[in-house]
Structures are given as structure tokens and as C-alpha cells.
Amino acid sequence: MPRIAYFGPQGTFTEQAARALAHPDRDELVAADTVSAAVAAVRTGEADAACVPVENSVEGAVPATMDALATGEPVVAVAETVLPVRFSVLVRPGTRPAEIRTVTSHPHALAQVHDWLATHLPHAATVAATSTAAAAVAVRRGEYDAAVTAPVAVEHYPLDVLATNIADVADAATRFLLVRRPGSLPEPTGSDRTSIVAVTPDRVGALAEMLAELALRGINLTRIESRPTKERLGEYRFFLDLIGHVAEERVGDALAALRRRCLHVRFLGSYPTAERISTAVPAYAVDTEFRQAAEWLTAVRHGETG
Amino acid sequence: MPRIAYFGPQGTFTEQAARALAHPDRDELVAADTVSAAVAAVRTGEADAACVPVENSVEGAVPATMDALATGEPVVAVAETVLPVRFSVLVRPGTRPAEIRTVTSHPHALAQVHDWLATHLPHAATVAATSTAAAAVAVRRGEYDAAVTAPVAVEHYPLDVLATNIADVADAATRFLLVRRPGSLPEPTGSDRTSIVAVTPDRVGALAEMLAELALRGINLTRIESRPTKERLGEYRFFLDLIGHVAEERVGDALAALRRRCLHVRFLGSYPTAERISTAVPAYAVDTEFRQAAEWLTAVRHGETG
């Protein structure tokens, strides 16, 4: 049975994402203590895949994931899923709203339902927990009255749902990746994303040139983040998400160009986008154009006039 | 007495940063509940300046700050400071290490001293708090035995320092900005940083062109982050930190070019870098070259041959 490690504990948003990415009958889900432990389980072969959060529309990028993917034995993303960040409020069976004196959750979750709590439970004090799941455990134990959790938590703990689908920011969402050891790539679907990490030389214009290589081939970026490498001052590691699949000519050609230009390029996977997006490739950058141009060049090099 | 709002509560790293940025005798420090409340206090005139965290080498960018600066009435950064993320462990007077059964702090702080706790207090359970300062309060009240806090916390709470200067990652650091309402800019020092937010059109190459405008003028970037604007799909807001002062010709010229190219550019300030850096400006991009070229162009336009 394939094992999928996820950044746990049980009952968190990452478990919910892992369920969305797993085969319901075939895969076994295993909680890991940290993002890096989940990825390490894939590297050692203890797990076949890992589900990790990569970016949140409110909290930003997840540096622990970026660092875990950028260094160590290579792993590649084969799928992504996007979960709306909408919470449930869980209570012990029979608890009435008026009885709720304390609400617990991870500080990030408490921050994201701050307005809801002020409106619906104005007299309850908030208490921090190490995770949304730990909050559910504390309520189950009777330590606090209500827990703000991922919707999936109610499947693990015998608690009642006081409210669900709540969030101050209506469109908050988290994107998760399913990563595996390198092997065969997912087939291109026409709506794919490719993730890479590139380290550029410490020189004015190095990033501009890298992005020009992508732009000249009609490739759109969906994310860019810089992090210092910590190895050398002024040396940066860039995390790029771009639209397209490495099997496509323009993406492959661009990645090869980056490989020439950058100190280091790591391929982090080509995988279908969670929501289907239209990939408008300029006429000069479609696969047939690349192939015809290559044939023409070969002909010219063989002394034909083309 | 000038008032400086900071993301509180008292006794956190942001208070410590605010102290580093404030005039010790002249400024009054006022804690705000959130980053956006601290910035709002400047906008309303309730405070003269705000001290907010902008990026952490372990946790990454601080989206709350980025969002607070990117939208709403403009504010500009006039100074920055970088604090090493090194913690103290505070206990009630007389507590011996062997008596410590529980350690509390913000989950991020607990994560950043995980190894230290495993080595020095292996039998203590960890408990989440909403802030490092709230952890100190809970220890003071006798709820838990030890708190992991910013070093400044000991000045607010009658607790003893069991250990200080601890961190699993030796070089972890957080950068803070001091922001004010727009007015006169700090003088250029030769080691300055300029922060901007730019919204590009949804078009392949828009970012590459923007960075080319900077690179062609010999301007080095120290940070880039993308965030979706949430206003229109495919529209991104880029946060850029670059080396140089807007009063310098090359920086001013580049910002004017971005103003032409981007849907929106917001100037977030030019201020001295916390650590002095060498700004190697290419010969073609120094101020005198810009001025001589402008004079030459004027001459040519007046019918002189130059």
C-alpha cells in the first residue's frame, strides 16, 4: 500500500490536502512532525510521497517547505491541490454557544477568524495551541470550550460542529504539493505548472536576464520568491513557478538556458494546475515552431538553403 | 514627545527593534495589537512612526506588513534595523532547571529553539502562547514554568534569565522598518536601500522588462516577492528592495521608467541599510554620467553637435 507522509498532526489542513491528493482506497496517510520530516520520509523510501503546504494567500510562502525542497536529495512535485482556508468551530457534544468561555487554536488560525469570533463569541478568551488539531484535543480533554480547526478534524475527534466554513478573508487559500522521488513525470495536460529553484551569480542583472530567457519564449510566471542562500553573501536562491510543462519545447528550451546561466538550477516538477488555466502560448513559441526551426537549422548546417 | 507605535505586546522582538530605532530620551513607544493597527496609528496621526517586522530569515516575509504598506494611505520607511533572532528562557526567581516541567512560547519561537529544549530541558512539555510576551505573563502567573522570549522581555516582567542568546539557527535574523507619513526623505548615505511595490500588467515578460529597467541602470535587487493582488486574476503585486537611494540619478531614472511601465508603483522609502554595504555602481550609471548625458542631450536638442 503506497504511503503518503504529510505535515501533521492528524486533523489539520495538510491532512485534508493529502486526502484530496491521495487515492482513497489505495493510499495510506502517515502524519509527520514537520515539513522536513515528511520530505525526509520520501527521500529515505519510508514513504512513497509527501504532501506539504507551499503557499498561503494570507500567510505567504512556507519557508520550511521551500528550504526542504531546495536542498538535500532531489524530490519532484507530481500534483498540486488548493484548499480554501475555511475553518470549523468544534465543541464537546451539547455545548451551547452561551457556555463558551475559551476558544483555542494555532495563532494563525485565531488571527484568520478574529472578526468572526468578535461577532459570534465576543465574550470568549482566545488561547494559543501548537496546531489546529492540538486545539481539538484540548477541547476533547475539557481544557477549553471550543477549537478552531480544519473541517477534517471532526472526523478524528468526537466533537460537534458549532459552525463551519468560516473565515474573515473569503478567498484565503493554501496550495499544497505532492512530492515523490524523481522518476517518470506526469503527462502534459495543457494546463501545467513547472516549479524550479535557481541560484544566480551575485551580479547586477542576473535575475533580469533569467526572466528574459523565460519571457522571450512566451513563458508566464505565477510566483517568484527570493531567499538568501546563506552560503555566500549576496547570493540568492529564486523559487519560480511558471506555466507550462518541461516536456513542452519552450519550457525545456528555457530551462536549458537557465542551466547555462545560473550557478545551480533544480527542477522541482511539472504537474497539472489545480484549477484549469488557459495557457495562451504565442505563435512563435508553440512546439511545432520549435521543431520546424530545429529542422530548418539542421538543413542549413547540411548546406541546404532552407 | 514623538510616539512610535510597534506591533506588540510589550516585551517582544518588535519592541526591541523599536527601541533600537527610537531616540532613547525623546520617543515614547506604544504597543499596537496588530501590524495593521500600528501602521493605521501613523496614518491617523495618532503615532508619528511605526516599527514593523518585514522579513525573517527563517519564517520568510511578513505578509501582514507587506499588505499594510501596499494599500491604504501611503507611508514610507525612513530606517531599518536587523535583529538576530536569539531568545532568552525566563523563569520565576529561584526556579531550578530540574523543576521545569512546562515551557511556553509562540509556536514559531518554540520551533526555533526546538533543539536547544531537547538538549537542555528534555523532560519539559511545550505549550503554545499567542506571543513571546504572553508566555512571560503566563510564567509570571505560575501557569507554566519557563517562557521562551525576546531578550527585552526580562525588562518588563520580574522573572529570572535561565539562559539567553539561544537559537537553533545561529544566523536567524529579522529585519524591521520604521515607517512615517510621507515628508522629507532621509539623506543618501552611500549605503541605502529603496523599497517599492509595483503592479504589472498581466502579460508575458512584464516582470522581466521591469527588472531589465533596473539592471540596465546598474541597480542590484536584494529582495523580490510576488503576491496576487486579489483584484484581478493574473495581476501580481511585486515587492522589490533595491540598493540605492531615490535621490540618486540611476534610481530615480529607473523608478520613473517603472512608473511608465507598471499599472501602479508605490514608493515605500529610501533609507540607510542596517549593515553598511558596498554599492559598486557601474561607471555608466554614476550620477555625473547621468548629468553629463542630460546636458549633452540638451545641447544636441539646441542644435549643438555635442
TrEMBL record, chains A, B:
Domain Prephenate dehydratase: 3-181
GO biological process, one term: L-phenylalanine biosynthetic process
Residues under site feature: Essential for prephenate dehydratase activity: T174
Principal EC category: lyase
Gene3D superfamilies per record: 3.30.70.260, Periplasmic binding protein-like II
Residue intervals of the ACT domain: 195-272
Name used for this protein in its record: Prephenate dehydratase
